[in-house]
Amino acid sequence: MSDSPTGVDRDPEPRPLREDPPAESRRTRLWRLGFNLLPAYRGTGARVEHIAGDWRYVRVRVPLNWRTRNGVGTIFGGSIYGAIDPVYMTMLQRILGDGFTIWDKSAALEFIEPGREALYAEFDLPNAETEAIRETLGPGESTDREYLVSLVDDEGEVHAACEKTLYVRRDE
Domain span at residue 154? Predict the structure, then answer.
């Protein structure tokens, strides 16, 4: 991370969007539809565009339109955060299953460049990450996990970066 007050790197490296994301399944297509119809998520103006069949990859799009535009004509920070807020928690819940409790604990959002066009966030959870959680937590034990997600434009230029801390507990 960096020495910024939020702990988020002020100048993360540009990240072009994946051209060939992992395939969706019928089930994750239904989850994507449900996510986008959920009133709390729909209100952000964002849309989940893709959920991999194994839940290890998710892509979200935040368009610049009448629902997401702020008073100065750029994407509203609340729409940016609302778009990314539930994603890592949901991914971990789906991958780890019912034997774990997962909660958002904290977040630090750094606005780097105003969003004057659609922004995208890509979430990745490698197999090694979830296996480490399974192997290190015994019944009743918990840990905090940190994840960084950047919001980028079509060219991969970073406009915002968010560090999320999630609480993970193995149920007894």
Answer: 26-170
